[in-house]
Batch of 3 targets.
Target 1
Amino acid sequence: MKNLVKFGFAALLSAAFITAKAQNSNMENSTLWEVSGNGLTESSYLAGTFHAMCSQDFEIKPKVMKALEKSDQFVMEINYTDPAEMTAMQKMYQTDKKLSDQLTPEEAKELDKVLADYGTDLKKMDHSSSQGLYALVSLKALPCPQTEIKLYEIELLKNALKSKKKVYGLEKVEDQMASINKAYDLKAVIGQLKIGKEYEVLLKEMIAAFKKEDVQSVYTSFRNDKIMNAQQEKAMLTDRNRNWAEKMPEIMKKESSFFAVGSAHLMGENGIVKLLRSKGYTVKPVSSL
């Protein structure tokens, strides 16, 4: 379970903080969507998640649990139950190439000073990957001790395993790592560490929106210009959404499926909802089940 918790934090990195222009308030909003039509014999469901939050804010809506119960298989961004994937995830945080060897003496000194704000230093983090550094941003942004952090996908996974559902992933750890590396090199991650306070404010806004099922606002907050530029958005959202939307029809065709992905992946011109609709599926928000 410790490995699963560690993975949950990595998932938070891959889909958590990014802000755009305001969306229309009358647009569709829900954390749960039903996918039907286009030859499907049974409906599948698409749930927008919030990877990690403090226990005081944590809740999975009853309709989400009912949709999971009705589905034959549970599909996550990455299959947490695959031992090979967990091994790859552990390697994601460490590297043989020291951070200090990738920086000038001046840059190393500056990073050491920045890391002090996160309760650590360069000596302790020197063998961390850039993803390992980015994890510090996410952890600090959550206003509670690690022992009080709840991982949304892990809770869904527990229920799926309890009812002996099949579990699959939409991408591999190496795919996620490639996306993160394409979006944020070491210098970019250090830049994110420097504006850590902005993440705290942004995360608070996103959690408030998610609790109200306002996924439009979550999507908006996920595309903050200070945190994500157009190239980073393409790597972290657009490309991954398109890859997932290509895989989902075959998965749904076999059995009714419950897909759980970060809420920011649902909305927008390149969001999964619109991509599935463009393939001929009926995708509608679910208010209750």
Target 2
Amino acid sequence: MSTKDRILSRIRRATAGAPDAPPAPRDYLRVHGSRTPAETADLLAANLTEYRAKVHRTDEDGIARLLAQLLQASRTVLVPPGLPGHWLASATATRVHDAAASTPHDLDRVDSVVTGCALAIAETGTLVLDGGPDQGRRRITLVPDHHVCVVRVPGQVVDSVPQALERLDPTRPLTWISGPSATSDIELDRVEGVHGPRTLDVVLLGAQ
């Protein structure tokens, strides 16, 4: 029996016969205010910028050119298996395909990673990845220093966290991203790139 099994067994014995917990109240606001899809996209952009992410807007005709510009300083770019091929058609960086055998040291040698997302939350400026084909494994967005995330607007944008939870599968590996990785010490000196990308570029696709 594993340690986990022993702990769960003790919990079951301790709670045997206890009454069921009352249902949690759900009387909170599902969304704060009424917005058009364009206003929701603008709010997402504003909150992402507040977190020091860099926000760009383009459409399908311009995404290859924009991504080439964002990757101009990158020698290598990590590509999830389901990323649309035409997105990187103009990029000159060498493409590195995600492999299960890739170690953190292998990923650390990659300059950038480009992914899609599951959805984005406007009120919190949060991107959510769930390991889908255009996103790849969680580790590929945590180790490289530069992450470019493409959000389809308006289809992948919701107003609030409650709306996001209704659309997400809790059994998938969810990664919630609010700006580039950062932390502060006791003197509030900000350090970026501690446990994730130092630079986060977000492309709002379809929002021109």
Target 3
Amino acid sequence: MAYLVLIGTRKGLFTATSDDRVHWSVDGPAKLDDDGFTAVAEIFAIAADPATGRVLVGASTFFGPSIWRSDDAAATWSEPENAPMAFPQDLPYRPLDYSDTAGIDQPDAEQTNTVKKIWQLAFGPGRRVWAGVEPTSLWTSDDGGQTFEFNQALWDHPEHTTWASGGAGPAVHTIVPDPGDPATLTIAMSSGGIYQTHDDGKTWNGITKGITVDYGPDPEPESGHCIHKVTRDAAGTLFAQSHGPAYRATRPDGGWTDISANLPTNFGFAMVAHPTQPGTVMAWPVGESMDRTPPGHRISAWRTTDGGDTWEPWGTGLPEEPYFGTVMRDGACTDYAADPGWYFGTRCGDVWASDDTGQWHLVAAHLPDVLCVRAMETP
């Protein structure tokens, strides 16, 4: 077997291949189309399906955001003839209300209904694809990503006016399918919270009970939380990294439990669950000061095997000297192999890989700022 890592950066898509997760061959930036604009595009979203070899990439180019597709594990690419998504023309502009959200400036009303960035792509059953978009919205495709339908129910949610802009912009940035129930989907947004549907997006319920904030007037608001990432383990338990503590929820409607006691900080972005071992999750803590660097300026991965009751630094082989690269919310992943591999990239442009024994190996160094990483096992 071989392994493919797809690396989205500020300046294009890079790929890395290996037969052993130790020795890597790196290529890129990839030209997803003939005009070459995508070779320097910002790549915020990648979805990879090991079962089929399908890959989707959301890129923001000179001409705006679009989605490129590969059916052969990133060997060749195609783009829809027309823009894959656009807000309905009769959708009223909705300037958001930021009056209760720590004083963040409100975007211009005329820009609210313009698709700015594609922040998340996720495969569902059949030809289903979900897309999380800025401004805060969810889109669904049933033709493999050629065309997308706007989810009106989420947009019309009565709490929408409390959804603010995180540091990177107001967006649905996390999509977590339920493998056992195609009608159930969990999404997270910054800054909006965590929402869940059990009827394929017809209705949405906020599920942030128990998540507290220290950046607003209400320490336990019903909505408007700045959530950085959500992941789902093999037993269906959800884990969340907020703009503050990390949390666990076995029944999200029953509330979340703070699991940050043994982590070095109460702050971070990326969080990835083990594909087969319930309760096993990886996190990459970030210092709570505004410099947003690893605690003590030492890059490290932290792992729990008991659902977050305890954590410990995991793995060897990472730099021991001062290191200032942060792992962003989509900058880490697993390849979902039977013997799973773990991957993460940093804002210093380095990418690392490990098998489940915890020995880290450098995949690539000195790339542009790494925004997202996806990996899969290939034949």
